[in-house]
Amino acid sequence: ADIELGDGRWVRVSERRTTDGGxxxxxxxxxxxxxxxxxxxxxxxRLQRLAENLPGIVFQRHLKTDGSIEHPFVSAGVKDIxxxxxxxxxxxxxxxxxxxHPADREGLAAAVQRSALxxxxxxxxxxxxxxxxxxxxRMRARPRRLDDGSTLWDGVSLDDxxxxxxx
Length: 167
Fold this sequence. Notes:
Strand order of the largest sheet: 5-4-8-7-6
Distance between the termini: 63 Å
Order of helices and strands: EEEHEEHHHHEEEH
Shape: elongated
Number of helices: 6
């Protein structure tokens, strides 16, 4: 059991009965561990709020060594642009990728492959069809190579439709 003491310190208590009816107990001070966990939790909450409140989408795209793509993280803004919930995009990347306009799919796939090969940042505009509407999306992402040889991008996507209409 983890117990908070009156002075704000935390102790993990582990007790075991002995065969002769006694009790052996171990008390470990876990105050620093608890503080680190709380700091991490607060940091994660700040980042989550930031991602949720930014216009557009904050995402991670993972190109696995087998060539498949997954999205380990997609912010809630995906609903506004792509018309799907973040958990749907994470569970099935095809839901996310299938919205790309057929005429832009090959170019986007080539840009992803080039970025992965060269570890070059992406800055790509493409069209999607979401909720029956044609939209322009501008994606910017930076790749990094993972230990297993796969590539992970951290990026943002914005609805660029108004810019293209004005242009």
